[in-house]
Amino acid sequence: MMTFSIVARCPKTLALGVAVSTAVPAVGSVAPHVKANVGAIATQAQTNIVYGTQGLELLEKGLTPQDALETILARDPDREKRQILIMDAAGRTAAFTGQETVGWKGHLIGEGYVVAGNMLVGNRVIEAMSDSFERGKGSLAERLLKALEAGQDAGGDKRGRMSAALLVADKRWTSSGRPLLDLRVDAHSNPVEELRRVYAVARSYFHISE
């Protein structure tokens, strides 16, 4: 799954989230993994959801993101085909871009976030995402979505566009009965733009605060 994504944490609200887009259908069903008060993970390239499911389990047991990542990589004979981003509830990070992932490929770790991608038009995609997130204001969900939009505006996946997703856990939303914001666009000619529309509808309907 040749993809660009961001995982991040808000130091004020402790919200955790992932935003991701790619040129194949249904990225939201496999790439983003989030658990409140535990962590956020994106698994992409030759996607293996074990990095998300087991990764969160290891974080919940107290492993650091780096230790959790190394534990799963050590079990994986195809690790060089993977790209993984991890953020835990304490704000610690880890990332891995395998040597056999398709270029342009790479990741960038910043304060409170990690951005990464593979099969992109160039490094300007994750640089644009990084710049957007660092300059962004508002909720974590809003900043993640803006970063995804910046990545798409910079060229995104060099094969085209198909799906996008936003997955965020924010304890402030528990009064709405929706501790997880799980939004997906599965097959669309402009999935990031459509994700923005869906986000606006969800915010209004579920009274999600900024």
Word description of this protein:
- A hairpin with a 3-residue loop joins strand 3 (32-35) and strand 4.
- The model has no long low-confidence stretch (mean pLDDT 93).
- The chain has 5 helices and 10 strands; from the N terminus they run E-E-E-E-H-H-E-E-E-E-H-H-E-E-H.
- The chain has one domain: Aminohydrolase, N-terminal nucleophile (Ntn) domain (Glutamine Phosphoribosylpyrophosphate, subunit 1, domain 1), CATH 3.60.20.10.
- It is α+β, with helices and mostly antiparallel strands and 210 residues long.
- The termini are far apart.
- A 6-stranded antiparallel beta sheet has the order 7-8-1-2-9-10, covered by helices on one side. A 4-stranded antiparallel beta sheet has the order 3-4-5-6.
- The longest helix is centred in the C-terminal third of the chain and has 16 residues, at 191-206.
Short description:
With 210 residues, the chain is of the alpha+beta class. 30% of the residues lie in helices and 29% in strands.
Features:
single chain; 210 residues; alpha+beta; Glutamine Phosphoribosylpyrophosphate, subunit 1, domain 1; four-stranded antiparallel β-sheet; 5 helices; 30% helix
Distance between the termini: 31 Å
What is the CATH superfamily classification? Answer: Aminohydrolase, N-terminal nucleophile (Ntn) domain
* Helix fraction by DSSP (H/I, runs of at least 4): 25-40%
The CATH topology annotation reads as Glutamine Phosphoribosylpyrophosphate, subunit 1, domain 1
How many domains? 1
Instruction: Report low-confidence residues grouped into runs of 5 or more.
Output: none
Question: Biggest β-sheet, characterized?
Answer: 6 strands, antiparallel
User: Could you give the count of β-strands?
Assistant: 10
Structural class: alpha+beta
Q: What is the percentage of strand-forming residues? A: 25-35%
Strand order of the largest sheet: 7-8-1-2-9-10
Can you tell me the CATH class? Answer: Alpha Beta
Using the 3D structure, state the CATH architecture. 4-Layer Sandwich
Order of helices and strands: EEEEHHEEEEHHEEH
How many helical elements? 5
User: Radius of gyration, rounded?
Assistant: 15 Å
| General shape | globular
Mean pLDDT: 93
